[in-house]
Amino acid sequence: MSLLHFDIVTIFPGFFAGPLDFGMVKQAQKKGRITVSIHDLRAFATDRHKSVDDRPFGGGEGMVLKPEPLFRAVEHIYAARPGSNRRVILLSPQGRKLGQSVALELSRCLQLTLICGRYEGVDERVAEYLATDEVSIGDYILTGGELAACVILDAVTRLIPGVLHNESSAQKDSFGPALGSRSTHLETPLLDCPHYTRPEVFREMRVPEVLLSGDHSRIQTWRNRKALEKTLKNRPDLLKYQSLSESERALLEVESEF
């Protein structure tokens, strides 16, 4: 199995001490499925003040990350680890939105360099001539790309073969092909079905009887229906009723027997 190298370029290298030391990401490193290297952008500045930002041409508020340190950082990373099938990802609100299909696409790479934006933004020459991808994790603004880098690291790592103990569970997550009858890829945007565990009754709230029946066919039908219902209720933008198959529409229209 292949190994995916993550290189993260940031002005706050200490930020990643916590996220890298817990859970699935830590286990993926121990298993040798990923490596993560953190690069301090200021180490690639050449002036005595280690400046990495400057005022924007044309005026305006805030500061902009300079191109020189970023180009040097990526060139240093590539020189130290030559190879192919690699991407340079600029994390910014102007990028294409991260989704499960994008995470799956990135999980097939051998090297991902994540550039954490800061301040008012990054010199556009970085987006045009250095980055191969510009990615946003959502339609909102963060103070920097460090949190976004952690999101991408987690979303991509769990899709790498050999990382999860039960790899099939990734295919049953939200935004995956939740219906057993669907012959689709991860681009199919379905939310996950509801899940329950012990106790069977909590404060007079009962686990649905069908889940206790032992009838796996009825349980799968119930889960399929609930996944569709939750998607249509919470994220109707992801799943248009007109695009549903005949069997999926039937699931939603039939009187519930559960």
Give structural notes:
The structure is a single chain. Helices cover 29% and strands 18% of the residues. It has 258 residues and is an alpha/beta fold. Strands 2-1-6-5-8 form a 5-stranded parallel β-sheet, sandwiched between helices. Strands 3-4-7 form a 3-stranded mixed β-sheet. A two-stranded antiparallel ribbon has the order 9-10. Helix 3 crosses helix 5 (146-157). It is elongated. It starts with a strand and ends in a 5-residue tail after the last helix.
Please bin the fraction of helical residues.
Answer: 25-40%
Mean pLDDT: 87
Radius of gyration: 22 Å
The spatial strand order of the largest sheet comes to 2-1-6-5-8
Structural class: alpha/beta
**CATH topology term of the largest domain:** Alpha/beta knot
The parts where pLDDT drops under 50 for at least 5 residues are 177-188
H/E series: EHEEEHEHEEHEHEEHH
User: Which outline best applies?
Assistant: elongated
As for the number of domains, it is 2
CATH architecture annotation of the largest domain = 3-Layer(aba) Sandwich
CATH class of the largest domain: Alpha Beta
